[in-house]
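[SOLVED] Need 3D model of a two-part complex

Original post:
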Amino acid sequence: MRFDEFTATGTGSEVLLAEKVRKSYGDRTALEGLSFSLGAGRVLGFLGPNGAGKTTAIRILTTILKPTSGRFVVDGIGSEYPMQVRSKIGVLPENLGFPKEVAAIDYLSFYGQLYGRTSAQAKAKGLALLEEVGLSKRARSPIRSYSRGMRQRLGIARALVNDPVVVFLDEPTLGLDPRGQRELLELVRRVARRAGVVLCTHSLSEVEGVCDDVVILSSGRVVASGTVAEVIGIATRSTDGRRVIRIHVPNGSVEDAQRVLAMVPSVIGVTPLGEATGWVGVEMVDPNGDASVDHHVTNAILEALIRAEISVLNFEAVGGNLHDAFLQLTEGASV
Amino acid sequence: MSLDRSVDVPRVKSRRVGRPAWSIIASRELFELWVGGKAIVLLIIYSILLGVTAFVTSNNSELELIPPKELVFMTLSTAISIGLFIGLITGADSVSGERERGTLEALLLTPTSRRQMVSGKFLAAVSPWPLALALALPYLVLFAQGGDSWVQGLLWGAFVGSLLTLAFTALGMLISIWSNSNKTSMVVALVIYIAFYIPTQWAGAAQTGVTGRLFKKINPLESGNHFLEKVLVNNRTLAEFWPWLIAPVVFILLTVGVLFLFAAPRIQVDAWMGEKGS
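Solution:
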């Protein structure tokens, strides 16, 4: 869904709604017309090249900065009440620091009290959260003894001390090893069971793996928003509805594949890619621009090859992933 | 939910059952300051400086001629100078230190007003002062040589010292709020301290005449010292010398006022965002 088609009217289950949020510093506009919605229990990926306005957007949505115009609503509370919005959100900032000599439970207890809990309540909540993020055995250890992955999990526990309805996670897997990244993304999925999550990251594979929806910013503007599949669809389809997929078949079957595929409806061209590579480019057209029709065409292509007993060694849509979509949508933006 | 339908916000406010935020923040700051050891280190240095000064004073044959009241004043003056320096640098670390360690943003993201945050930090930053004054007490008693000048010294010292320490702590916090790095904050605080302190060490000739007296009167440190000297050493009264308290009082009103009314609501993750926080 393109931004100009989007209006943040909501469907009723949204926990975060932003409409036409704008931020400028003098003549320079850092963010222009940010509008999107986040449903309860959904994970929204917030993407954009460096300097796209992600940090500004997150800082506005977390009440650290005031928007120049526009507003947002968190669980029914408007951005004109920042203190109340803060009591409804949890945030893991990108460069979160920790008091190194303090024990994790005391750290969480401190923040729990700042959200209005008594000392005993805050401690109990802290212990429950440490259990949830897998740090209960290290509850009394000073934070200086924690690894980066443990600190990130502790940061997420801190973001949850107030039972937020929206959780903002800014680059949560940055600097983690693959195992740490996997564990943290599993934790993000668990968090999403009880809150809407805004995940700000540069890792597109993370977004594809975890997010339901995505907003892509470029030069301060939303260039695409919607479900991950919708955003990939926006980028994949040319203005006249043409799409290209690549199919890898055994070298000796390329001519047969060309013949079979040329007979499939909606296929308008089949070209071998390179010399004796076995790859065939299939150009197809969907005049209606309907993603569901695309799927029918690709299914028909595969079905035709299987019927002709041609082995399909590999199959990929050109631009059919978030990485390609991101590059296409943010083309020309500073990286 | 739509943007036009927001809930009744005061309903959300009533959930707080725990302690006020300023007290929670003050507790944490006090813990970090005292259990973390920074205040202890500063007070040890203070005690050493005070002890050395007292030792030199009591062993210098020329100074033996100085009357006890003046010795009490000299000790008090040293205690106040170092005590307010502790307040200044503790204040200078309070916000920029958190900014540098990356812990400020998490604090700003809580539903705590910036003023409550500053109040908690301010209370913790001035906490070394009463102990510093208490550490000076044995020296005051010793130099009073059996007289009761130490009582008057303690009372007036507590009054003037508190005015100056609160003002310098607030000044340190202002510097800290407007500094992105702790190093900048500390250097600026040190330069300001020297700028205030050096004139108190100028020779008497430099402090006479219209300009000299004016400088002496507008420098809160010098003005406060002059007031203490006249009241403690020369037995002058408050009624006679209250104008010398104008500078410390204006200074504290100015620094504390700017801190709480202007700077505190504008604390941001980055020092120079140039706008009021939300």
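Edit: The mean pLDDT of chain B is 87.
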